[in-house]
Amino acid sequence: MEMTNINIRTETMVKAQAQTLFTELGLDMTTAINMFLRQAVREQALPFRARIGDEYEATLRASLAEMEAGASGYSLDEFSAMLDKAMERGAAQRA
Length: 95
What we know:
By secondary structure, the chain is mostly helical. It has one domain (12-94). 62% of the residues lie in helices and 0% in strands. It is globular.
């Protein structure tokens, strides 16, 4: 199967919290994102409830605008490596 990279941008805290959750579930970020994408394709819908007026609507619209404007980001591998380093630093600080 041919693979490709996806570049995404998210808030630092959201990234760290997601990584912690996925690690606790025995997943890495790549696997979790692939699960999301496959479920969306399978259902032909977002795999969660989304509605107009939701508190995250403004963030979603801003993210879409950045994407359409060609905002650069990181490859998933780069993103994962940065997250791993951040988690290591956090673990070292807690120790």
